[in-house]
Amino acid sequence: MHCFLHIGTEKTGTTSIQSFLCDHRGPLLAKGILFPESVGRPNNRALPVAAYSLERRDDYTRRMGIDSDVALADHQRQILHNFHSEISAKAEAHKITKLLCSSEQIQSRLTSDEEVYKLRQILLGVGATTFTIIVYLRRPAEIANSLYSTSLRQGNSNFAPPRPTEPYYRNVCNHRATLERYSRVFGAASIVARLYDRSAWRSSSLLCDFCHVIGYPITSDVAPHMARNVAFSPLAAELLARLNRELRKLPKGERAALRDRIVPLLEQHLCDGGKKYRMPGWLYAAYDREFADSDEWVRSRFFSDRPSLFPAKCHASAPPLSYEGAELDQIAAMILALSMPAK
């Protein structure tokens, strides 16, 4: 059985791809392609968890209440049991020739050769014999900018993304390190690197491009149905960072419930004017410099026909807000007060 392993990277349309695959699970199965549910729907998030080193703790383990190596080992065994059971059941009912797994957390969370090798062993254990590793690559500065918006939705209270040396951001943005890691474990011939760039996509569609790689051709008219996150405006990003500082003072459950109410309000009322948050120009330039050698290495080996891996873009950040810090604090306090449930 051939295994297509879509590993991300983060902020490259993975939600759209996974939603499409989830909606087309039946037609895919009819063509012998299994997109599993037992390891997460639509994101196969549990698959990388099954390959975690036992000492690893992150947002997933916290959410699942996993607080020890023993608890994680038990959880991993349950994931693998469910995975094996699903594949066995589907193999009996359908002529499965291909396994397709997709999770951006494969790239962002499995950061050592040992963990990636463990993932390979898991896939071999369910019947995979050959592999195609699919990875979409985006300009590091754009990844950082988009990751920051996601982090605001999760409670970040900083007013800009971290510098490119921050470990999590560095791992996601260092494309050379990613490609070398998966080449060492799966073999260089298994890597299919694609650019997160409309001009490089088949039919100018991310979904068409991805489906061409897995041998499931579609027409470009599915592209308008792609899921998209609402981009924060500079004002919405600034206010949410300040609101997150205040929300930290509340109990965890109450904090999450309020954020779930506030974020849609910000998206609805402050994110429809066409202005999008852009991190400071000096930080864009810092990301470009930090990963210039990595990007050139990737270009020379995977995209040698291109003069540069990513199109050159200016580093202009959004103009400064016409509000004082104290005024923004007042607006944030008003939003929080209006969002609090009546007592």
Q: What does this protein look like?
A:
With 343 residues, this protein is an alpha/beta fold. Helix content is 52%, strand content 7%. The chain has two domains: 2-225, Rossmann fold (3-Layer(aba) Sandwich); 234-276 and 314-339, no CATH class. A five-stranded parallel β-sheet has the order 2-3-1-4-5. Helix 12 (234-247) packs antiparallel against helix 13 (252-270) and helix 12 (234-247) crosses helix 16 (325-339). The chain starts with a strand and ends with a helix. The model has no long low-confidence stretch (mean pLDDT 92).
Number of helices: 16
Oligomer: single chain
Mean pLDDT: 92
CATH architecture of the largest domain: 3-Layer(aba) Sandwich
Give the helices and strands as they follow along the chain: EHHEHHHEHHEHHHEHHHHHH
Structural class: alpha/beta
Number of domains: 2
Taken from the alpha-carbon principal axes, the silhouette is globular
* Count of β-strands: 5
Percent helix, as a range, is: 40-55%
* Spatial extent as radius of gyration: 21 Å
Beta-strand share of residues? 5-15%
CATH fold group of the largest domain:
Rossmann fold
Low-confidence stretches: none
Protein traits:
343 residues, alpha/beta, Rossmann fold, 2 domains, five-stranded parallel beta sheet, 5 strands
Which helices and strands occur, and which strands form pairs?
Elements: E1 2-6, H1 14-23, H2 25-30, E2 33-34, H3 46-50, H4 59-63, H5 69-93, E3 98-102, H6 105-109, H7 113-125, E4 130-137, H8 140-153, H9 167-173, H10 175-186, E5 191-195, H11 206-214, H12 234-247, H13 252-270, H14 281-290, H15 292-302, H16 325-339
Parallel strand pairs: 1-3, 1-4, 2-3, 4-5
Helix pairs in contact: 7-10, 8-14, 10-15, 12-13, 12-16
